[in-house]
From TrEMBL:
The chain crosses the membrane at residues 72-93, 100-119, 125-144, 156-180, 200-222, 243-270, 282-300, 312-332. InterPro entries: ABC_BtuC-like (IPR037294), ABC_transptr_permease_BtuC (IPR000522). One of its GO terms (cellular component) is plasma membrane. Belongs to the binding-protein-dependent transport system permease family. FecCD subfamily. One of its GO terms (molecular function) is transmembrane transporter activity. Keywords: Cell membrane, Membrane, Transmembrane, Transmembrane helix, Transport. This is Iron complex transport system permease protein.
Amino acid sequence: MAAAEPGARPMLASRGMWLPLAVLALAGVVALGMSLAVGSASVTPEALWAVLRGEGDALSRTLVLELRLPRALSAFAVGGLLAVAGALMQVLLRNPLADPYVLGLSGGAAVGALAAMLAGLGGAVISGSAFAGAFLSTLLVFGLAHGTGSWTPSRLLLTGVVVAAGWGAVITLMLALSPSDRLPSMLYWLMGDLSYSRSPWPPLTLLLGICLLLIPLGRSLNVMARGPLQAAALGVNVRPLEWTIYVVASVLTASAVTTAGSIGFVGLVVPHMLRLVLGNDQRLILPACALAGGTLLVLADTFARTMIAPEQLPVGVITALLGVPTFLYLLYRSR
């Protein structure tokens, strides 16, 4: 019996990792189904099932396949991107307050994307500009917070708030100089808007690819969460891993901002809640963040569409209402 135990433990651990992922995947499917069925014009479960089978009337097919499905998949992708980015930054900084929105990455990405839009550029240029803004913001926050010493939660938080405020001032200047006929759509986009998300496959593909990339790094990230000195002592090549996290978090944030604008606190709330339930194994937390973040934003967007239907709220308003109390609670605990 004793000889069988070492071989049994990995199997039990594997089962223990797959079960929560299966539950989260099921929750995501249910959330997507709700998003397709609920709205100013409801679709019955029978009609929805008929549309998904390639049948149903023309109105239902247009409503589900051309309007709601791309938006729901985009919401899932953006939520997953932001949650994974937040989880990576929390590992790097060993700080539960780390989040792309709080630390100014979303603001930097928004400035880059808006600059490209105002210049009349589009497509890949907007995405590249958003990545440049997010990466610049990453370097500013981490470089200024580190200084000549080490990171502290208060120094990091203060630096992130200042950098985010600076990006906010730049955004205000850009809006003031923008043509008046473009202001409403730009303001709505800055608050987090999925109304014009018609191509969900690029962010979904990026989310899947990043998750597959990070799976082999799970053990190194687990060690990194204990601190760079311990990670180096245990054989982790710290500096390349840190730069990988910098670049990946910037790419994830830039893709999310390009798709849906500036949506806050998803990367703060989701990793924290999952760690309370699942522990701190990054091999489980990172794919769980992708599923739970996507599910959360799909539900938030569904609520934003239906709360005052036929009018719509920006989804960033809903996530802020969830995220601000969570942020204050974590800040209180970190004292």
